[in-house]
Amino acid sequence: MDFTALYKRSPDPRIESVARYIEELSPGAALPLRRAFRPGRLRQVLGHIFLIEVLPSRGDYRFRLAGPQLGALYGMDLTQCRLSGLANPQLREALRQDYDEVVQSRSYRYLRGGYVWADREIRAERLLLPMSNDEGTVDTIFGVAVPDVPDDLLLLCTGAGLPALRTDEMLSELA
Predict the structure, then answer these.
(1) What pLDDT digit, counting tens, does each position of 1-50 carry?
(2) For the chain, which has fewer Cβ within 10 Å, the N-terminal or C-terminal residue?
(3) How many structural domains is the chain composed of?
(4) Which residue segment(s) compose the domain that 103 sits in?
(5) How high is the pLDDT of residue 174?
């Protein structure tokens, strides 16, 4: 994967470290293989990462792994939740669009924006990456969400219930 355009945007150093690791897993134009991914290599963002299983037969997605900081942003542990099961339809549709784009384009998607509740907002950067199985089918989306709030203050800064997502800037490998 080519992250040149991402690096020019000066992402959060934690996002950059994830991109550099993915470059190791996917030299050239290759997609990173899900089986090659080692979460322990990303200790500095471990609580911020998530793995999403692509469920092609149902046109849905399932959160296979969701770090505790992501759970704090959403006000719930997303592990094993299906996207179709999220109660907020606007959030569900925004996430579906992002995930569908990653799967269809077989390219990363970098987003800057915010998690928005009725009375507050937390700015964040998100990076979504396609991962393939041995046959080359995108079967997993690897993601990292890095808010601009320190981890130890995150729960104090979030709002009640599921947030909406606001995207101020979006970049994909194909842009």
Answers:
(1) 889 999 999 999 999 999 999 998 887 778 988 898 888 889 889 999 99
(2) C
(3) 1
(4) 4-172
(5) 63
Report residue 107's pLDDT band, with 50, 70 and 90 as the boundaries.
Answer: very high
Q: How far apart are CA 37 and CA 47, in angstroms?
A: 16
CATH number of the structural domain spanning residue 59: 3.30.450.20
pTM higher than 0.85, yes or no?
yes
DSSP letters, the chain, are ---HHHHHT---HHHHHHHHHHHHHS-TTPPPBGGG--GGGGGGGGGGEEEEEEETTTTEEEEEEE-HHHHHHHTS--TT-BGGG-S-HHHHHHHHHHHHHHHHHTS-EEEEEEEE-SS-EEEEEEEEEEEE-TTS-EEEEEEEEEESS-GGGHHHH--SSPPEEEEEEEEETT-
